[in-house]
Amino acid sequence: MRTSAIFTATAVALALAAHAHAQTKYPATLEGHAVLPAMTLVPPPADAPQELQISGRYAGPPGQRVDTPESVPAMSALSDKSAPRPTGLSLPLKGQPVQGLSGIKNLKDGTYLTLTDNGFGSKANSPDAMLMFHVLKPDWKSGAIERIATTFLHDPDRKVPFRIVNENTPKRYLTGGDFDIESIQPIGDTLWFGDEFGPFLIKTDRSGKVLQVFETKADGKTVRSPDHPSMTLPGAPGAVKFEVRRSKGFEGMAASPDGKFLYPLLEGPLLTETGEMESKDGKRYLRILEFDVAKGEYTGKSFKYVLEAPANSIGDFNLIDASTGLIIERDDTEGDVAQACTEGTLKPDCFNVPAKFKRIYKVDMGQADADGFVKKVGYIDLMDIQDPNKMARQGGKDGKLTFPFFTIENVDLVDADHIIVGNDNNLPFSSGRALGKADDNELILLKVTDLLQAK
User: Fold this and answer.
1) Is 217 among the domain residues?
2) Which residues span the domain enclosing 340?
3) In angstroms, rounded to a whole number, what is the distance separating the alpha carbons of residues 233 and 244?
């Protein structure tokens, strides 16, 4: 290696070390814990197609439809490094599951707006999973979560510019075969959803009726994932070009306090012309795009969020004020390290790849550098939550609570001292809280005064 290359490599290493060292960990104390049981189901609307009375017909063996309710045991297997583990539930389900809570917004009256994502994990296996949003009310004293209202997305005016699953029905209810909604923001009398498949932004009224669907643009160019409806496989083996990897579209989406701008955040890095993931100094980064609500178009401006590890993803994004916000960054693992398998073994009665990296960062877009990289002010560790008053409903031990879920996709500000955090339980496939048991949807109230005051 040439001397100049050595100096360059050393400088980069020192810069990255300084970046890591500069991050401050702040304490998080549990002050409330509420649980929505995994098997919380709702009936479809009376005018929905009969087929939607059952969900998850296509989420069992690949390429097969299963019509008999609760006949196929569900298994959890997150990667090739983990053994399939039973979750105690079976598919398909009688009704529509209130699961996969992904994206949350404080309505400031003790209730929270949240949503059910695409259903069972992919476009192919979720055509009978209805897209819906909810108003939930956690009772921190009893630990229960009341479902105040549920609203189903529909497209009677044919605003969706492509064929949907329920194309030729009067109400045209949307399903996980159409979109994968992962974030929600109320602005005035409308709701805005961030989607992973297109990725798209979806505008609806308060009844869930689609008003408009927007393509995604970054640096003035339209970007698409392999699940975009315009994408087709070639007639012969060969490259298919897209800019957003599957399941790496819009995961989090913040709104400016005045409602003038949306800030959808991609879950994974954009792909460059050469097929490489966007990165700087060896670290991958995600795009936070800016969307002008009144104009209905992207401004062309974007911010960049650096990941702490190449395989990490984000779970949610909400602003605290005009420039600072909270972003969940996490790895793709689940389960408490105390129940980990012996290294190198693959067994169904232990966690092969336990959770390690589950954080919430405070970021400052107002202190972004000249290239648009936001400042990471500090973080809390969701695997190290203090619980001195034993508020944990499940998972607490020795004065602490861990949040060891595969996906954690809900964070918002509650007040000057507290935030609310929740998991997406990926029903019926995730089992990170207890072996052999499907995860519930959990909401936790955390006191994080130091993080919220950090500059």
Assistant:
1) yes
2) 15-453
3) 16
pLDDT in tens, the chain (455 residues): 433 333 344 444 444 444 444 589 999 999 999 999 999 999 999 999 999 999 999 999 988 999 999 999 999 876 656 778 999 999 999 999 999 899 999 999 999 999 999 999 999 999 999 999 999 999 999 999 999 999 999 999 999 999 999 999 999 999 999 999 999 999 999 999 999 999 999 999 999 999 999 999 999 999 999 999 999 988 998 888 999 999 999 999 999 999 999 999 999 999 999 999 999 999 999 999 999 999 999 999 999 999 999 999 999 999 999 999 999 999 999 999 999 998 777 888 999 889 999 999 999 999 999 999 999 999 999 999 999 999 999 999 999 999 999 999 999 999 999 999 999 999 999 999 999 999 999 999 999 999 999 99
- Provide the whole-model pTM: 0.94
Domain count of the fold of the chain? 1
Whether 371 is in a domain gets the answer yes
Among 329, 247, 237, 254, CA closest to 289: 254
Q: Is residue 6 part of a domain?
A: no
Q: Is residue 28 part of a domain?
A: yes
